[in-house]
Amino acid sequence: MSQVNQDDAKGHVHAIYKMADKDGQFRRKASTFRSYVSPDLNSEFPAEKDRYVLYINWGCPWAHRANLVRSLKGLEDIIELVVMDFILTPEGWVFNGSHGSMEKDPLYGFTKLSQLYFKADPDYEGRYTVPVLWDKKRETIVNNESSEIIRMFYSAFDHLLPDSQREVNKPGGGLFPENLSKEIEDMNEWVYDKVNNGVYKTGFATTQDAYLSNVVPLFESLDRLEKHLEDRGTKYLFGDHITEADIRLYTTLIRFDVAYFTIFRCNYKMIRYDYPRLHKWLRVLYWEDNGETKGAFKKTTHFETYKEGYSKAMRSPIIPYGPAIDIMSL
Ligand SMILES: N[C@@H](CCC(=O)N[C@@H](CS)C(=O)NCC(=O)O)C(=O)O
């Protein structure tokens, strides 16, 4: 079912699809559930096998981050994954058996993600976003902020993993090494605002001014990332090993040429033709299957959902035909 059919009889847009504020700017709201899973078994949310469930859909880049780190860290047998449909309905994300979604929520038989939010907090008033990390024991949402969920996944469950997969034993110091933490945090800040969220602010803008005030900084930031790779000459953003910075940039850039370029009007340049270093970096992450990538980038990438998901999010019944190739070979 397409969202364009879901306006009311007078053609009013349903509240859930109203992304931009009155001034035409899209402002993402802060996440609400902000607890942490901890390796400390006496904590409120101790890291245990079969206790936590990650709710996602294949389209969302924030959910993709969490799913990617779950695979990269080898947590597939420890944290359960529940996939929902990637088409946003007036009632939010739903379970319906389509687009990789389960028929129903496997825990409670729910049909909507909102029901899980209300189970966690009957007075909940925010948006019903993915990803959600659910605790089966306390029957509540631990956290619905992807940047925090991924950090828990880096090391909170390490005592349940083989030695070689633990962060302390990684040659480069792991996904968020102490010696790089400042540089990674600095990059996170502008990449989040101008790139990860910048594509959304560009796509969901409803005035020319709002659009231009986001699309220009987006491409300036891509230029800056290209220059960063050129200056460093490294395989990944911060050296020979994958870090959080690579993970956070990947889920946006893998959607760029395929979806954001056309659907979000981020069409000043394309990654594949205009950013040789970023293009190489992206293909290395996607195609290389070795001890570093663990094949996790390709495995968690679902190109077939991006064009359709973003077209529907923009309330268009048309799914763009191209590009002919989702990602070029290495
Ligand atoms: N800050 C959140 C953002 C998550 C988010 O906005 N997810 C989108 C999908 S890409 C969503 O669920 N939107 C539903 C809605 O806003 O109604 C995070 O990074 O986890």
TrEMBL record:
Question: Which GO CC annotations does the UniProt entry carry?
Answer: cytoplasm
GST C-terminal domain segment(s): 143-318
Query: Which residues are tagged with the site Lowers pKa of active site Cys?
Result: Y260, Y310
What residues sit in the active site?
A: C60, Y200
Concerning InterPro entries, the annotation shows:
Glutathione-S-Trfase_C-like, Glutathione-S-Trfase_C_sf, Glutathione_S-Trfase, Glutathione_S-Trfase_N, GST_Omega-like_C, GST_Omega/GSH, Thioredoxin-like_sf
Which residues does the annotation say bind glutathione?
A: W93, R127, Y128, T129, V130, E145, S146
Its organism's taxonomic lineage begins at:
Eukaryota, Fungi, Dikarya, Ascomycota, Pezizomycotina
A GO molecular-function annotation: glutathione transferase activity
Put simply, this protein is called GST C-terminal domain-containing protein
Q: Which residues form a coiled coil?
A: none
